[in-house]
Amino acid sequence: MIKHDRFLARTGETLVHSAIRQMGTIAAQLPDVISFAPGYPAPETFPWAEYRDIAAELLSGRDGSVLQYGPTRGYGPLLESLQALLAGRGVTAGLDELMVSTGSQQGLTLVARLLIDPGDVILVELPTYTGAIAAFRNAQATLVGVQQEEDGIDIAHLDEVYLQQVAGGRRVKFLYVVPNFQNPTGLLIGLDKRRRLLEWAERRDVLIVEDDPYGDLYFEDSARPEDTRPIKADDDEGRVVYLSSFSKTLAPAFRVAWIAAPAALVSKFDTAKQSADLCTSNLDQRIAYEACRRGVLERQWPRLRRHYQHKRTVMTRALSRALGDLVSWPHPRGGFFLWASLPPEIDTERMLARATEQRIIYVAGRAFFVDGRGAHLMRLSFSLPTAERIEQGVARLANVIRAELAATPGRRSAPVEADL
Ligand SMILES: Cc1ncc(COP(=O)(O)O)c(C=O)c1O
Question: C or N: which end of the chain has fewer Cβ atoms within 10 Å?
Fold first, then answer.
């Protein structure tokens, strides 16, 4: 076999892999593992019967366009449904300001391809979504982190970091944020802060890339729908590129997501997408469209909110009981994730070996930080396992953490505050 390394382009050599996908591979190989690692929706929430009916009709052969190539921007009637969906979130978008992407992950890749020159500075939250880190790094961006507070990104720190970068002669292109139930912290950016963030972006002439896959999944015991109002809803001058997805509400397998952005950018995203995949699967888009048209999506929302709220409660209760003296976390008010802070002497990456032995996995915190921090943090997803498995998993995790602590030199007292 010849050596292929010498054929790789520079990007090919430096591509960043996903820590989360790697955990998924490990999980798949272990019998009886309880996985708090991937942010997968719960399959028991999928409306299987309705999808079966929709797919059977679409595949009846009556409409040949179902299995054809479609326009790069997306299936027209679906775009119109997306307009209505966005209007419900307070976002007005013309048809020329909207396009479908193959998952929001493709949206991030298109954003990277269109907006990032090597060396450009992209500001991200500390911590942030690993898929965005990978997409932006693969475009050779310099990623610079901004601290978060209980109500999301710290605007004073944001400005400080911005000014430092500009003083160093670097160009800051955009700020990437996940305002609703952030992956990985579960945090919600406060409404007032969203407005101030937009003002900041206008003052500093920076774009905002707003990624919102979890906004519909607020928990009624601790958040209101208006708390999830996108930054994009108040964007009068086209500062915000807004991404959202059906992955967490309909199903990730459809790979149907969308971008709302100024028409001039959407036209460029369209061109970039043409060379990426020509179009998102027409069949998948048609299923998503039918799910919107027939009210499947609307009926899913309250079910999903109840389902994940319940699992969140099961996880927080089990953690408080088993690890309340050692572990702290910001209370998840929506979404899929709980962000756990362990005693500082624990390294969650190192602890994974012990955890996998005990058939429990999570994502170690460092993967979400662009500045190398996060060693004593971990992301626990409560979305996929059943309530019973969540309780078992937390019991296993408690054993793992206590054993790790006993085996770790320089043991100190536990943290009391949730650590972002
Ligand atoms: C914040 C965030 N953005 C984007 C994605 C990618 O989603 P999609 O399945 O639409 O590609 C995810 C998936 O977990 C996510 O958490």
Answer: N
* Edge-to-edge order in the sheet of strand 256-260: 98-102, 256-260, 240-245, 207-211, 172-177, 121-125, 142-146
Tokens of 389: 């498995």
Any atom of ligand 1 within 6 Å of the Cβ of 38: no
Contacts (Cβ under 8 Å, ≥6 apart) of 416: 328
Length of the chain: 420
Ligand 1 atom at shortest distance from the alpha carbon of 129: 1
Rounded Cα distance, 96 and 169, in Å:
35
Taking only the tens place, the pLDDT of each residue in 284-341 is 999 999 999 999 999 999 999 999 999 999 999 999 999 999 999 999 999 999 999 9
292 vs 78: CA distance, rounded Å: 8
Look at residues 151, 297, 310 and name the one whose alpha carbon lies nearest to residue 220: 310
Gap from CA of 270 to ligand 1 centroid (Å): 20
Q: At what angle do helices 282-293 and 76-88 cross, to 10 degrees?
A: 50
**Strand 142-146 vs strand 337-341: parallel, antiparallel, or unpaired?**
unpaired
Pairing between strand 172-177 and 121-125? parallel
Tokens of 140: 């050779």
